[in-house]
Structure formats: structure tokens, C-alpha cells
Amino acid sequence: MHPPSLSTLIPILQLAVGPVILISGIGLLLVMLTNRFGRIVDRARLLTRELLGQPHHPLAAEIASQVAILHRRSGILRFAILGASVAALLVALLILLLFVATLLDWEAGVAAIALFSASLVCLISAIAAFIHDMNLALVAIRTEIRRALPGQ
Questions:
Q1: Structure confidence at residue 58 (pLDDT)
Q2: Partner of 123 for a Cys bridge, out of 66, 87, 91, 108, CB 3.0 to 4.6 A?
Q3: If pLDDT is split at 50, 70 and 90, which confidence band does 80 have?
């Protein structure tokens, strides 16, 4: 095995730029998802403390309903975070594959396509879960507004 020349590595580095940019975008998606997840967890803890402190509160059923929705949303966001994380991992493996295949002179086109496709499927599932969470959040807000303003 001989070390690859710079002229051999340059096309591989150029080929790896796209996946590196994809990892950057996935990283931004993960920051947003984890921030949403943290806010949901904080809100659920607050409402649970309120519910435990006043179990016979007139709005106890509504608070419990909100906590249940937050719990459901946290599970959806956990799935989205997992999907985005696996997508980033698969893209990183793709980049590694590109370099190893060049270094060892392997034909890895099918493996590269498989890794890239799998990463896109994971990314799509993460975005779909995020959209589902947004819709569930809007349903919860709409329900809360209807309770507060019966004429709406």
C-alpha cells in the first residue's frame, strides 16, 4: 500500500465537501431540536410540580392533559433527534469510506450510495417528526385558546 499523492486526494476532498456541508446542516437541525426538547422537558416539569403541589386544583385535569401532550411531544422529538443523529453518523461514515476506498483502491460506489441514501432517509424521518411535533403543538395551543376564549 502506497500513500496517495496529493493529486489523488484533491478529487476525494472535493467529493467530501458535499457530505461535510450536510453534516453542518444536520448539526443546526440538532441544535434546534434539542432546544425544543429542553423547553418541553422544562415546561412538563413545571406543570408536574404545579399538579403535585395542588392535586385538587380546579384546572388539575387540564394541567394533566397538557403534561400528557408534552410527554407525547418529547417522544416525537426524541425520535427526530435520533433520526438526525443517525443521519450525521451515516454521513461521517460516508466521508470515511471515501478516504479509505481511495487509500486502499477499493470500488465503493454501491456502499457510498447506500450510506448516503440511508442518511437521507434518517434526515427525512427527523424532519417529518419535527413537522408532526409542530402540528401537535398547534393543536395543544388551539385547545388552550378555546378553553380560555370560548367564543373563538
A1: 79
A2: 87
A3: very high
Cβ pair 29, 126 in contact under 8 A? yes
Separation between Cα atoms, residue 148 and residue 12, nearest integer Å: 60
Q: What angle do CA 119, 90, 108 make, to 5 degrees?
A: 100
The total of other beta-carbon atoms located within 10 Å of residue 43's CB is: 15
Would you tell me the crossing angle of helices 60-104 and 109-148 to the nearest 10 degrees?
170
pLDDT higher than threshold 90 for residue 57: no
Please answer whether residues 116 and 94 qualify as being in contact, where contact means their C-beta atoms are separated by less than 8 angstroms: yes
Of 28-32, 75-79, 81-85, 139-143, which gets the smallest average pLDDT? 139-143
Domain locations in the chain as residue ranges: 18-148
In whole angstroms, what is the distance from residue 135 CA to residue 138 CA?
5
CA–CA gap between residue 39 and residue 44 (Å, rounded):
9
